[in-house]
Structure formats: C-alpha cells, structure tokens
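Quick one before lunch.
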Amino acid sequence: MHTMKGSNEMPERCAECGAVLPAGRTCQSIFDECLGLEMANPAYYGQVHMLTVACFMIQHGRYSDEARNWIATQIQDHLNGVPVQYIRQRAAGGVKQANRSWQIMREAGAAPQPRVDWSITMVDIVPSLQDASLYCNQIERWARATVDEMKAIN
Ligand SMILES: [Zn+2]
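Model of the zinc ion complex:
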C-alpha cells in the first residue's frame, strides 16, 4: 500500500489563533500585506487600520489582559461611531505609562492568553484584499466578532 506523501497530514494551523493557513501564508504575512495596503491607501484601506492592528494583536495573544480589555472598549466605541481621532487622543492621554500600572504587551513570562475558537481570523481577510470597500467591511466584521468572542476569556 502506497500513500501519497502528505495526504494524511493535517492542514497547517496558526499556533496562536488556530486559523487554518493557506499554503505559503501565515497570519503574520497576511497582516503585513494588510498594513502595506493600509499605508499605501490611507483614505481607503487605511480607514480600518486601528481595527486591523487590534484584532491581530488580540487574536495572537500579544496584549496584556488589561490592554486587551482597554482596546476592546475602544473598538466597541469606534464601531458605535466614535471617530478614530478621538480614540487616538484617549490612547495618548489615558494610557500613558505614567498613568497606568499595567503593560500594553503581554510579558514574555506571563501565562499565555487562553485559546478562543475565533469565528473570523486573519485568514478570512484574504479574499477581500483586492477591494478596499470589501476589505473595510470584512475588517469591521472581524472586529465585531473578536470583541464579542473575547468575552469568553475575561
Ligand atoms: Zn493566527
């Protein structure tokens, strides 16, 4: 009996968010593609920049628990119509290191963030990379789902 090499292998998954990865891509490489589009087209793709970064960081366990909760509140407010400029001002004022006792980034020795079975991941953004309005809609859907589903680990 000959089995084709690889036929029994599980699809490759992101170790951090659990997404099934398309061949040749990782969440990080997709994230980098998104940032490239957002930098090159700030008026179109760039409108959702805050959401892209926050969702990637939340789903990949990069934030401390305190920072994750803080940013989730900002995402929720932004999705409810608070302009991103106002959120930037809050970020510049409210979370200055001098005014908080917590770190933004999860510390290297900290327990990993509990796993969440995210319904939308970085990989689900790939089909909308070619179209700015599809892209923005999809990033917003991702943000809503991420904020909703992270309640499971709070
Ligand atoms: Zn991932």
